[in-house]
UniProtKB/TrEMBL annotation:
Active site residues according to the UniProt entry: 238, 275
Protein name: Malto-oligosyltrehalose trehalohydrolase
Catalytic activity field: hydrolysis of (1->4)-alpha-D-glucosidic linkage in 4-alpha-D-[(1->4)-alpha-D-glucanosyl]n trehalose to yield trehalose and (1->4)-alpha-D-glucan
Family recorded in the similarity comment: Belongs to the glycosyl hydrolase 13 family.
Domain of life: Bacteria
Taxonomic classification: Bacteria, Bacillati, Actinomycetota, Actinomycetes, Pseudonocardiales
Organism: Amycolatopsis balhimycina DSM 5908
Length: 570
């Protein structure tokens, strides 16, 4: 068996395999090689302590321990008939493996996949599953990108999940983090020039300096492995604005090119979805038109506009979205900040989207996601403070918009469980630093220390687990029925999934208190105001209403926080 590692600056490299230690031979380009037999191994650089393989496929004993040989060919897949799912027309469901179920494993999550099918979901998106230090965490502090977190079930457990999802017609989206490594177990810098500069979360990758060819290869090979070896259908690329790359061909464009080639070889769609703070449509513009060629990106502007409309919160980055026309603008134009002033950033921000040529399905819309819940001091969901009718209005707008909708786990039944920030670093100094830093961060925003949950307390994880019994209880069951109905209508009525943003028509009140969304021969009328409104819609039939909303004589009578989706004669 051949063991290889890239360590261009090392003078001596050995590999410890089971009970033996073997000298490695320097090869081309800073790579070292050795032949040995065994399954547990680690590398020794210049006589330092043994380190896990940067390209490890399996870390059964944690990120500081030796790696274990893993053969992808040994897994017995049953998804030979799977041909993938395209993103247009899809509905995503974001979940965290550790808190999605009581068991907190891939196998436990498999038992809930039928719920997603019944809901109408097409793509299930998992928060990062790569190895991180400790047992519980969000996954964004991963340090060994190719090894699946063992407490979730390891590589075989993840493959069982993907296989089971495909058997039910569900595509799998995996959240991957290439902009930084976590603070514990990040040994990459000992092997080579992997890092250059810093970002908000830690050392950034060296993507364009000396030695960066292998660093880029490290990223792209990891991404392609998820597609090829784990049969994943899409990757959500975390915070790509932190990938600093001054080359003529950006890393994202290179990744899109190679993923496209692999997609052709595998004969199924492979989708790349970016999270970006840039508000730059270049990311999702095809390469032949000068863009990076990614397939979609998250739309925080739509979230912010909906959040302000539902909650009335206007602090921090929500400030600009208090404008009466904010929601109308993001529905019509995708970005609110499109070369315009951002008071939060104190500068102009973004670039306009050409809605005539860029379809709406390239932008993911959501009322909630892991960031927008978990990065609140107490991890409170919208359902903790927003009335059910108002939430229903937000859901109706989301699913009737031209954008690709995404649901955060439990949102579909207005879950009462919070989703809080948690970690489990074994190092007591690091654990205390994270705990103290979290409290200081929110103290600056007026929260008392006692109000901020201890991220290291196992009770914080337990509070964040979904209570599946809620889904059938009064007050929750009605919301679940609504989500099912909205997703079903989006699937049955092509007008609702039409991604052409430039054709979108809106009627709105000057103060933004009510809105009518035109979708072909359908009209969605929503009343966010404090008083009732009557809106003439030319309705011939009501497809879906909420609360005391009624449709009579072609007009919709809407009390506050109600909506009506109707069919018209146009």
């Amino acid at each position: 068996m051949k063991f290889s590692v890239w360590a261009p600056s090392a003078r001596r490299v050995r590999v410890s395999v089971d009970e033996g230690v073997h000298e490695m031979t320097a090869g081309d380009g800073g790579w070292w090689h050795a032949d040995a037999e065994g399954i547990n191994y680690a590398f020794l650089l210049d006589d330092e302590k043994p380190l896990p393989d940067p390209r490890s496929r399996w870390q059964p004993h944690g990120v500081h321990a030796e790696s274990r040989v893993y053969d992808h060919a040994e897994f017995a897949w049953t998804d030979d008939a799977w041909t993938g799912r395209q993103l247009p027309g899809g509905v995503l469901y974001e979940l965290h493996v550790g808190t999605f179920t009581e068991g907190g494993t891939f196998d436990a999550a498999i038992e809930r996949l039928d719920h997603l099918v019944d809901l109408g979901i097409t793509h299930v998106e998992l928060l990062p599953v790569n190895s991180f230090d400790g047992t519980a965490g969000w996954g964004y502090d991963g340090v060994l990108w190719g090894a699946v977190h063992e407490p979730y079930g390891g590589p075989d457990g993840f493959k069982r999940f993907v296989d089971a999802a495909h058997a039910r017609g569900l595509a799998v989206v995996l959240d991957v983090v290439y902009n930084h490594l976590g603070p514990s177990g990040a040994y990459l810098g000992k092997f080579g020039p992997y890092f250059a500069g810093r970002n908000d979360w830690g050392p950034g990758l060296n993507l364009d300096g000396p030695g960066s060819d292998e660093v880029r290869r490290y990223v792209i090979d990891n991404a392609l492995s998820w597609f090829r070896d784990f049969h994943v259908d899409a990757l959500r690329l975390d915070a790509v604005h932190a990938l600093l790359d001054r080359r003529a061909v950006h890393l994202l464009e290179q990744l899109a090119t190679e993923a496209g080639a692999l997609s052709a070889a595998l004969n199924r769609p492979l989708t790349l979805i970016a999270e970006s703070d840039l508000n730059d449509p270049k990311l999702v513009t095809p390469r032949e038109r000068g863009g990076y060629g990614l397939h979609a990106q998250w739309s925080d502007d739509l979230h912010h506009a909906l959040h302000v409309k539902l909650t009335g919160e206007t602090s921090g980055y929500y400030t600009d979205f208090a404008a009466p026309d904010a929601l109308e603008r993001v529905l019509r134009e995708v970005f609110f900040h499109a070369g315009t002033w951002s008071s939060f950033r104190e500068r102009t921000h973004g670039r306009p989207v050409d809605t005539r040529t860029v379809p709406g399905h390239r932008f993911l819309g959501y009322l909630q996601n892991h960031d927008q819940i978990g990065n609140r001091a107490t991890g409170d969901r919208l359902s903790a403070t927003v009335a059910p009718g108002r939430l229903a209005c937000g859901a109706a707008l989301l699913f009737c918009s031209p954008y690709t909708p995404m649901v955060f786990m439990g949102e579909e039944w207005a879950a009462s469980t919070p989703w809080q920030f948690f970690a489990s670093f074994p190092d007591p100094e690091l654990a205390e630093a994270v705990r103290t830093g979290r409290r200081r961060e929110f103290a600056r925003h007026g929260w008392g220390e006692a109000d901020v949950p201890d991220p290291m307390d196992p009770a914080t994880v337990e509070r964040s687990r979904l209570d599946w019994a809620e889904a059938g209880r009064p007050g929750h069951r009605e919301v679940l029925d609504l989500y099912r109905a909205l997703i079903r209508l989006r699937r049955e009525r092509p007008e609702l999934a039409d991604p052409q943003v430039s054709d979108l028509r809106l009627d709105t009140a000057p103060d933004g208190s009510w809105l009518v969304l035109h979708r072909g021969g359908l009209r969605l009328a929503v009343n966010f105001g404090a008083g009732p409104v009557t809106l003439p819609l030319g309705a011939t039939a009501a497809l879906l209403t909420w609360g005391e909303a009624t449709v009579d004589g072609g007009a919709a009578q809407l009390p506050p926080d109600t909506f009506a989706l109707v069919e018209t004669t146009q």
